[in-house]
Amino acid sequence: MAPTSRASASDRLNQITKHIDSKPFLELNTPFSTERSARFEDERGNTIKRHTPPAKKAEPPVQKQVPEPPKKMSQQAPHPALLIPGPIEFDDEVLTSMSHYRQVSSESHVGQPFVNCFSEVLQNLRKLFQTTDPASQPFVISGSGTLGWDQVAANLVEPGDEVLVLHTGYFADSFTDCFETYGVKAMQLKAPIGDRPQLDEVEKALKEKNYKAITVTHVDTSTGVLSEIKALSELVHRVSPETLVIVDGVCSVGSEEIRFDDWKLDAVLTASQKGIGCPAGLSIMMVSGRAIERFKARKTRPTSYFGSWKNWLPIMQNYEAKKASYFATPSPQLIHALDTSLKQILSRPLDQRFADHKAASQKVKKAVADLGLKQLASKPENQANGMTAIYLPEGITPPEVLPTLLKKGVIFAGGLHKEIATKYIRFGHMGVSVTDSSRPDITRAIESLKDVIVEVQKNKS
Questions:
Q1: Does 87 sit behind a cis peptide bond, omega within 30 degrees of 0 on the bond before it?
Q2: Alpha-carbon dihedral sign for residues 157, 161, 162, 168
Q3: Would the pLDDT of 51 be above 70?
Q4: pLDDT tens digit string along 72-102?
Q5: Do 126 and 136 contact (CB within 8 A), yes or no?
Q6: Is the four-CA dihedral 141, 146, 150, 155 of positive or negative sign?
Q7: What letters, b where the CB count within 10 A reaches 16 and e where it falls short, cover 14-41?
């Protein structure tokens, strides 16, 4: 058959347009699609049709190269259930999304597809923190939750300022050390191990001195102590309204209720690898408009370069507005994972998520009591819903318990509070291990803990 005459430019454009409109984007980029293998052009641009029976050309192409992923996958290699207070178990879809649609390893951090993804992440963080105030600002920066401390110390207070740190465990000591690194004077208000500073004590401290900020660890990972944020913020706004309310929510966001607007919070810092259910590597913050104005009114430059909001604020604002921007390279893989995790979290009411964590927590705490064991947080109002810190029986230490738990397929964490580290272990129950009813993680961990305590006691008798 003689070659056909060369088509006009407009005709060829129309053919391409029809092809794109009628075929999925994924198919268009598959090298074995019917259209792409059924026609060629000679060196002059004339179309040469392959001798393919007409009936076959009308058939839809068979896609075998890139199968459609199932909604629920179980692709993780067998492993012990990770039930420490972070990192936690991750959903398969979250892990798979890190490979960027399962086709390429990475992408441009200033390309529009990634910018659109980052924009959705920032918008969904507003929903997770429950803020509709356009003056508030989410931040997502590569780093651990610890970077949140640096951001607070470098941007919201200045050298010589005084802050009040409410102490419920190890992480208040660390936050204090961070402040002092930046030349900020930090005073701690401490409570006995397993307890939290009482509101009357906080009120007394606020009346004695003018503090630029007050910090509270929502859930201290070293003790499992839960702080009351709503009542605390109400107190601060009543007694010392110029004091910023800063919440360390690394071990609470995603498993404990936080109402950023309603509770009039100024900053909540967290990390990706705990209740949010995304691999470690992202420092996440929500900051109020009032705190942003405090930052803008600084007399001195921020005392960090990488953590400076002078550098990051326009970047976050641009990304949320779907505009490419650059200061330091983000991790596209982790942003995709966070995007997937946030969409999973927000796919059902947040109240239901928090209720699920509370129910799982009560189940764990009842099992602990039935074993005759005690929690570090002895008062019910002090007990976190995403983790439990458990005193071991007298004479039993973590090295005698944790390896045996591991053999049974469960990973708990040892003690972290330096004064009692050899006396207790920590059980994390948050994220997908709680919200996915098909997972046996929590029940299995409780049964394993019972068996191990009995075994160790029997061996010692």
A1: yes
A2: positive
A3: no
A4: 435 788 999 999 999 999 999 999 998 765 4
A5: yes
A6: positive
A7: eeeeeeeeebeeebeebeebbeeeeeee
Which has the closest alpha carbon to 316: 150, 179, 154, 126? 126
Cα 121 from Cα 261, distance rounded (Å): 19
Task: Quick: pLDDT tens for 225-276.
Answer: 999 999 999 999 999 999 999 999 999 999 999 999 999 999 999 999 999 9
What residues does 32 pair with on adjacent strands? none
**Which pLDDT tens digit goes with each residue over 371-382?**
999 999 999 999
Q: What are the backbone dihedrals phi and psi of residue 142, each rounded to the nearest 5 degrees, phi first? A: -60, 125
Give residues with Cβ within 8 angstroms of 294, minimum separation 6: 156, 244
Which H/E stretch holds residue 66? none
**For the residues of 348-386, what is the DSSP string, one character each?**
S-HHHHHHHHHHHHHHHHHHHHHTT-EESS-SGGGB-SS
Instruction: Choose among 342, 373, 381, 376: nearest CA to 452.
Output: 373
Q: Is the entire prediction scored with pTM above 0.85?
A: no
CB 157 within 8 A of CB 179: yes
Contact 357, 255 (CB under 8 A): yes
The DSSP code sequence of 110-155 is TSHHHHHHHHHHHHHHHHHHT---TT-EEEEEES-THHHHHHHHHH
Residue in 110, 150, 318 with CA at minimum distance from that of residue 246: 150
Instruction: List residues bridging with 219 in a β-sheet.
Output: 226
Token output for 132: 């509709």
Phi, psi of 311, rounded to the nearest 5 degrees: -85, -40
Residue 105 to residue 11: CA distance in whole angstroms: 37
Residue that is written with structure tokens 């004695």 in the block: 208
- Sign of the CA dihedral 31, 35, 39, 44? negative
Contacts of 367 (CB under 8 A, 6+ apart): 446, 449, 450
What is the maximum span of the chain, computed from C-alpha positions, in angstroms? 97
CA distance 158 to 153: 8
Nearest to 214 by CA among 194, 187, 193, 192: 187
Nearest to 261 by CA among 350, 134, 352, 385: 134
How far is it, in rounded angstroms, from Cα 112 to Cα 329? Answer: 15
Q: Is 296 exposed, middle or buried (0-12, 13-18, 19+ CB in 10 A)?
A: exposed
Angle at 157 between CA 156 and CA 158, to 5 degrees: 135
